[in-house]
Amino acid sequence: MYELKRKEGRARRGAFSTVHGTIQTPAFMNVATCGAIRGAVSALDLKELKCQVQLCNTYHLHLRPGDKVVKELGGIRKFTRWEGPVLTDSGGFQVFSLASLRNIKEEGVTFASHIDGRKIFMGPEESMHIQSNLASTIAMAFDECIENPAEYNYVKKSVARTTRWLRRCKREMSLLNSRDGTLNPHQLLFGINQGSTYEDLRVEHMKQIEELDLDGYAIGGLAVGEPAQEMYRIIEAVEPYMPEEKPRYLMGVGTPVNILEAVYRGIDLFDCVMPSRNARHGHLFTWAGIRNLNNAKYILDDQPIDEACDCPVCQNYSRAYLHHLFKANEMLGMRLAVMHNIYFYNTLLEKIRFALDQGQFEAFYRQHRESLALRI
């Protein structure tokens, strides 16, 4: 159940109650693709990094170790030792990202495994079965993530198919949640709005899926190559048609500035691999902008990554030390950098929530929208 506590403009402050705990929103969901954050960060580490939700990848966990294995071991939360809510995606993004290895039909999608090439079929029912076996808190509906730009008529047909798939997902989840032996009979289902960058298709699709009375709604198919202003334009077009009493999730987004701008436009939930991926290459987010710790200027810099940050890394290590670790290809450098970036993202959302609680979000937004994007 989602409780809208207050609004400032379109920005929303809420609380989303689930069987595995309450998520304070706006919130960032930390991406643990195969059940772990890349960069040697465990679920136990996430507790001290202010994480509220762990996000795991349906497609990858289905390939290995196998969703039936995860079920046998008690579900994804017991398997990874993460005690809080978990969101699993549907495999739909792989329809987009594995374009050269797929075949889309009404029944679903046939993939060639990126690991060994074996054929895998996944449709709405299969996706719901896999996610039920994983026993996540929130399951995402199976959809097609459309590339940008895309031809209008193809997008229109794809959106209609995604809606048909969504109805099948809802029926299948209802059935699975009613069965004996289901690990999480309270599993929630989020639908996904698609439509590329066509406002009319986006709005019409949102109207259609809103009628299905799902547990939450996501905007998908953005941050896949289009300019940021295009993404903001689509959010502004779709947001008025998203139910106010349900959580709103912008999939795969993004930079700290993207998140700040999306909160400003009424979004509640976010996920992105960027904090961990960028960190593994030495790119660190700070309140003053983005630092590249590979740069030679940090050789003798004994300051923390971010003087305004109280994360465990900034409290104990210098820029010079992390610079050395990256140059020496020490895994500890990646681990510490990932920990800092995850803490930074979760703290950003924490500060956004506080600003909304105090009725000061507009000031917070104007103070940080430019500085967060600077490259130091």
From TrEMBL:
<feature type="binding site">
    <location>
        <position position="143"/>
    </location>
    <ligand>
        <name>substrate</name>
    </ligand>
</feature>
<feature type="binding site">
    <location>
        <position position="314"/>
    </location>
    <ligand>
        <name>Zn(2+)</name>
    </ligand>
</feature>
<feature type="binding site">
    <location>
        <position position="340"/>
    </location>
    <ligand>
        <name>Zn(2+)</name>
    </ligand>
</feature>
<dbReference type="GO" id="GO:0046872">
    <property type="term" value="F:metal ion binding"/>
</dbReference>
<feature type="binding site">
    <location>
        <position position="309"/>
    </location>
    <ligand>
        <name>Zn(2+)</name>
    </ligand>
</feature>
<feature type="binding site">
    <location>
        <position position="221"/>
    </location>
    <ligand>
        <name>substrate</name>
    </ligand>
</feature>
<keyword id="KW-0479">Metal-binding</keyword>
<dbReference type="InterPro" id="IPR004803">
    <property type="entry name" value="TGT"/>
</dbReference>
<keyword id="KW-0808">Transferase</keyword>
<comment type="function">
    <text>Catalyzes the base-exchange of a guanine (G) residue with the queuine precursor 7-aminomethyl-7-deazaguanine (PreQ1) at position 34 (anticodon wobble position) in tRNAs with GU(N) anticodons (tRNA-Asp, -Asn, -His and -Tyr). Catalysis occurs through a double-displacement mechanism. The nucleophile active site attacks the C1' of nucleotide 34 to detach the guanine base from the RNA, forming a covalent enzyme-RNA intermediate. The proton acceptor active site deprotonates the incoming PreQ1, allowing a nucleophilic attack on the C1' of the ribose to form the product.</text>
</comment>
<keyword id="KW-0671">Queuosine biosynthesis</keyword>
<comment type="subunit">
    <text>Homodimer. Within each dimer, one monomer is responsible for RNA recognition and catalysis, while the other monomer binds to the replacement base PreQ1.</text>
</comment>
<protein>
    <recommendedName>
        <fullName>Queuine tRNA-ribosyltransferase</fullName>
        <ecNumber>2.4.2.29</ecNumber>
    </recommendedName>
</protein>
<dbReference type="GO" id="GO:0008479">
    <property type="term" value="F:tRNA-guanosine(34) queuine transglycosylase activity"/>
</dbReference>
<feature type="binding site">
    <location>
        <begin position="89"/>
        <end position="93"/>
    </location>
    <ligand>
        <name>substrate</name>
    </ligand>
</feature>
<keyword id="KW-0862">Zinc</keyword>
<dbReference type="InterPro" id="IPR036511">
    <property type="entry name" value="TGT-like_sf"/>
</dbReference>
<comment type="pathway">
    <text>tRNA modification; tRNA-queuosine biosynthesis.</text>
</comment>
<feature type="region of interest" description="RNA binding">
    <location>
        <begin position="252"/>
        <end position="258"/>
    </location>
</feature>
<feature type="binding site">
    <location>
        <position position="194"/>
    </location>
    <ligand>
        <name>substrate</name>
    </ligand>
</feature>
<dbReference type="Pfam" id="PF01702">
    <property type="entry name" value="TGT"/>
</dbReference>
<feature type="binding site">
    <location>
        <position position="311"/>
    </location>
    <ligand>
        <name>Zn(2+)</name>
    </ligand>
</feature>
<dbReference type="GO" id="GO:0008616">
    <property type="term" value="P:tRNA queuosine(34) biosynthetic process"/>
</dbReference>
<keyword id="KW-0328">Glycosyltransferase</keyword>
<feature type="active site" description="Nucleophile">
    <location>
        <position position="271"/>
    </location>
</feature>
<feature type="domain" description="tRNA-guanine(15) transglycosylase-like">
    <location>
        <begin position="10"/>
        <end position="370"/>
    </location>
</feature>
<dbReference type="GO" id="GO:0005829">
    <property type="term" value="C:cytosol"/>
</dbReference>
<feature type="active site" description="Proton acceptor">
    <location>
        <position position="89"/>
    </location>
</feature>
<dbReference type="InterPro" id="IPR050076">
    <property type="entry name" value="ArchSynthase1/Queuine_TRR"/>
</dbReference>
<comment type="similarity">
    <text>Belongs to the queuine tRNA-ribosyltransferase family.</text>
</comment>
<dbReference type="InterPro" id="IPR002616">
    <property type="entry name" value="tRNA_ribo_trans-like"/>
</dbReference>
<keyword id="KW-0819">tRNA processing</keyword>
